[in-house]
Amino acid sequence: MRVAGVDSCRGGWIAVTYDTDDGTLTPRVEVSFMALLERLRDAVSIGVDIPIGLSESGPRRCDVAVRKVLGPRRSSVFPAPDPRVLFAPTWREAEAHSRGLTGKGISQQSFAIRRKAAEVNWAMQWESQDRVFEVHPEVCFWAMAGRRPMA
């Protein structure tokens, strides 16, 4: 059985698969998320460090819960971008558009991942939803540390 962890990278998407039968780790890079899903079609579970399921009605409950669990020192967990600002060409335009829509701006971190978030959310089909999941690596580290906030 194969499982995979995925993150965006400069060249597209990087995945590391783990084969539970022989204990091997295999890295790979694909240019697009769709190509990666095709390459990983036999993986039973794919964890992706990118927001899946974007909200137009305020912060996603999962992001709020993660920040609460990890504590105030974990600034690496930031709000997912509003889907209506994904295609703004500059951060200033996205910021202004977000403020006009929601009364709140968009962080530079959220702006930086907007195209990758759009790519993943566009690629998610019904058949992918039973094996492709959003993950927060910070939560994994928290769990491995005994469910305590990281120092």
Throw out a few tags for this protein.
151 residues, alpha/beta, five-stranded mixed β-sheet
Task: Describe this protein's structure.
With 151 residues, the protein is α/β, with parallel strands linked by helices. The chain folds into two domains: 47 residues; 85 residues, no CATH class. Helix content is 34%, strand content 21%. A five-stranded mixed beta sheet has the order 3-2-1-4-5. A hairpin with a 4-residue loop joins β2 and β3. The longest helix is centred in the middle third of the chain and has 12 residues. The chain is globular and about 50 Å long. It starts with a strand and ends in a 7-residue tail after the last helix.
Provide the fold topology.
Elements lengths: L1 E8 L2 E8 L4 E7 L2 H7 L3 E6 L12 H10 L20 H12 L5 H5 L1 H10 L8 E3 L2 H8 L7
Parallel strand pairs: 1-4, 4-5
Antiparallel strand pairs: 1-2, 2-3
Please summarize what this structure is.
The protein is an alpha/beta fold and 151 residues long. 34% of the residues lie in helices and 21% in strands. The longest helix is centred in the middle third of the chain and has 12 residues, at 91-102.
What do the pLDDT scores average to? Answer: 91
If helices are DSSP runs of H or I spanning 4 or more residues, what is the number of helices? 6
- The whole-angstrom Rg is 16 Å
Please estimate the helix content: 25-40%
Overall 3D form: globular
Strand order across the biggest sheet?
Answer: 3-2-1-4-5
SSE string, helices as H and strands as E: EEEHEHHHHEH
Q: Which segments are poorly predicted (pLDDT under 50) over 5 or more consecutive residues?
A: none
Question: How many structural domains in the coordinates?
Answer: 2
Distance between the termini: 35 Å
* Largest beta-sheet details: 5 strands, mixed
How does the helix and strand content classify structurally? alpha/beta
**Percentage of residues in strands:** 15-25%
